[in-house]
Design brief:
With about 260 residues, this protein is an alpha/beta fold. The protein is built from nine helices and seven strands. The protein folds into two domains: about 40 residues; about 210 residues, Rossmann fold. A seven-stranded mixed sheet has the order 3-2-1-4-5-7-6. Strand 4, helix 7 and strand 5 form a beta-alpha-beta unit. The longest helix is centred in the first third of the chain and has 21 residues. The protein binds S-adenosylmethionine (SAM).
Amino acid sequence: MVAMIGIEDLMNGAETDSDRLVDTDTMIHFLKVIRLCTKEKETMKYDPKAMQNYNSTQEGFAEHYNATPPWDIGKPQAPFFTVSDQIKSPVLDVGCGTGSTSIFFASKGHDVTGIDFVEKAIQCAREKAAKQDLSVRFQIKDAMTLVNWDERFYSVIDSGLFHIYVGKEQKREQRRYVQGLAHVLKPGGRLFLLSFTDEAPEGGVSEQELSDIFADGWELESIQQVIGEINPTFLAEHPKAFPAGGPKMWFAIIRHIGN
Ligand SMILES: C[S@@+](CC[C@H](N)C(=O)[O-])C[C@H]1O[C@@H](n2cnc3c(N)ncnc32)[C@H](O)[C@@H]1O
């Protein structure tokens, strides 16, 4: 007859042995409960794919800013330091989050605008800039509205926004976003893009997809694979959310030739 195996034991991969055999009905019951528990666990875990649906994206990101967002490392991602002498003002940081990259370029003397559609992120960015006595225009703004904007920039920074809109269901948003980038970038201006590769568990783009997306009116000047840095507090709380060492990303410099 039945020697009870705890649900936790089963979920943790405990094997049954002859002393702990369960009858079929009990096993089916356990399996149903396990499925429920696993489902509950899945909805609770970090799941960036769940945000890859435009309608829920804003909500999903707003929620992230109530905790420690994985991308919020308090400084620019490494590739932006290496190209800092190639950045020309005016600079737009799209999806600027809490503003670390915008603030870094402002500290280098650039004229910087940072936009994000999460109010909390923008408030935090404004506070950080004020503490450092730096002037950055931080605005709550949806990147999907760039197509209607009158502002023009010579450099656009995209540190982790583009890859949110690369899934099959986001083709419309992706087109709109790329049209918006072309609209706000002066001819000859450049996009500095950091995006997950298609090998990242969150889903991203292949090199071919990236060059196809920027085929018309753009020139892909350089592309290299880099490793994204993740906030250590987030990593301690979610050790399995990203591959060991960090997610694979593309860092591309893309020149806007003209509309
Ligand atoms: C992965 S985070 C990167 C944040 C920041 N660039 C950084 O490197 O720390 C992506 C950011 O893009 C913002 N975002 C996503 N979709 C957006 C949209 N349509 N318009 C404006 N901001 C958006 C999110 O709120 C989030 O702050």
